[in-house]
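Students often ask why we bother encoding 3D structure as a string. The short answer is that it lets us treat folding as translation between two languages. Here is a chain of 201 residues written in the first language.
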Amino acid sequence: MRNGTAVLPESRQDPAVRQRIEWAAVQVFADSEFHQVTLQQIAKAAQCSLQTLYRYYGSKEALLSACLHHGLEQLAERMLDHLAGIDTFRDRLSKVFWVVLDFFDRNPQMGRMMINSVYPGRWGSDTTPGQQRLTELFLSVLCEGQEQGILNSQVATPILLDFFYGVLLRISQMHLLRGRPGRMADQHGVLFDMLWRAITV
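And here it is in the second language, the structure alphabet:
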């Protein structure tokens, strides 16, 4: 609770208002670093009162966490949908890689928000259910590859995940930061081949 206003349980909040606030917040967080953003800016962009923001989220940190959670939940859902029915491990991992590139192609503001406002410490702590779910999904796919003797097992699965994430997020972030034309997902094949050669036995 901030500003003396109690946060409403989500069950009592208007989903349409919540969606409008979070959409506006992503746009604002995408354009400025977290410490530069004010709740007044977000309230103006969402066309709601400052009191509504406090009643729905309580703080700027909680609002950012909600935006991150829902973005990563969408990514996890898309990934699960796309992985259904894929048999070979290489194709499964390739699809994971493609889904992330495609997600940032479709949601560049979400990517910019993550660059500007989500600091490295937040990724390490898996603070939202969306982050936890996505991390568990990535780890399960990589662990499967190690157990089958396909992926390098000389490092622990979380380190392999860091390597995979490092390549994927660096490509995605720099594409957005540099304003490069075209879709990253269109280069998925050659990019994944490079990564595949690096992590397989």
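Translate back mentally: Residues 60-83 form the longest helix (24 residues). Keep this in mind for the problem set.
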